[in-house]
Amino acid sequence: MTTIDTGMVLAAGLGKRMRPLTDTLPKPMVPVAGRALIDRVIDRMIEADVRRVVANIHHHRATLETHLKTRRDVPVVTVHEPDLLETGGGVLNALPVLGPTPFYCANADVLWFDGPKPALRRLAEAWDDAKMDVLLLMQSAAFARGYDGRGDYFLDPAGKARRRRDPEIASFVFAGVQILHPRALAGFAPGAFSLNKVYDAAEAKGRLWGVVHDGLWFHVGTPDSIAATERDLGWTKPKA
To answer: How far apart are CA 233 and CA 230, in angstroms?
Structure first.
């Protein structure tokens, strides 16, 4: 199994769809079932033996920085974006901090629960440096809670990924969790751009792969989705 000791959390977004909660709170700090989304992501990374976490920050920067400093179980390095760089630009901007080896990268608005084996460990076990630049965690579209789209990707029997093209309906949704090698961003210019461009470039080279998640997965993007997720989890707010 490939040893991956660094993880990045994409935490710089404005969280517009999460308003009014994000009027006063950074989206990664929105609580779901009693715990902030970003803390749940970091928890999963620690369980996978990550020794250092990097988070890009922008919206309500000071509040998020202060919150992350309260973590005593893993050092969290923050990379401030004065101007939003989107997902791809944010990762490219953080590469000097992330280092030259593959790293985990996760969105701050996904919530996942592991199956028999932790999802991040399954990704590390599947990673093949000789043939992969990107390895995405995929969720079956039929079981993706909080998602109502047409899917994102198809996987061949070996696990190689192909993006859906209109009017296709794809079997899998990208779960917002992945392993990235820094070389996947080679040739991209600094500035704002989506990681989708990185995935498409890797796919064109035959170096985009996927692993199917075998546990629960929730997309938590709106206040309504928080309530729905908490209902699915059977969580009730403790009485004051």
So the answer is: 5
Place of tokens 């929730």: 218
pTM for the full model? Answer: 0.93
| Cα 1 from Cα 31, distance rounded (Å) | 33
Q: Are 134 and 88 in contact (CB under 8 A)?
A: no
Q: Which residues pair with 104 in a beta bridge?
A: 7, 179
Tokens of 56: 């890009």
CA torsion angle 127 219 149 20 (round to 10): -140
Structure tokens at 17: 């769809």
Q: Which residue has the tokens 């779901």?
A: 32
Type of residue numbered 220: V
Q: Name residue, tokens 């590469």.
A: 95
Answer yes or no: are the C-beta atoms of 228 and 146 closer than 8 Å: yes
Per residue in 73-106, pLDDT (tens digit) is: 999 999 999 999 999 999 999 999 999 999 999 9
pLDDT tens digits for 132-143? Answer: 999 999 998 877
> Could you tell me the maximum CA-CA distance found in the chain, to the nearest angstrom?
55
Residue 147 CA to its chain's centroid (Å): 15
Q: Kindly state the helix (H) or strand (E) to which residue 80 belongs, with its residue range.
A: strand 76-80
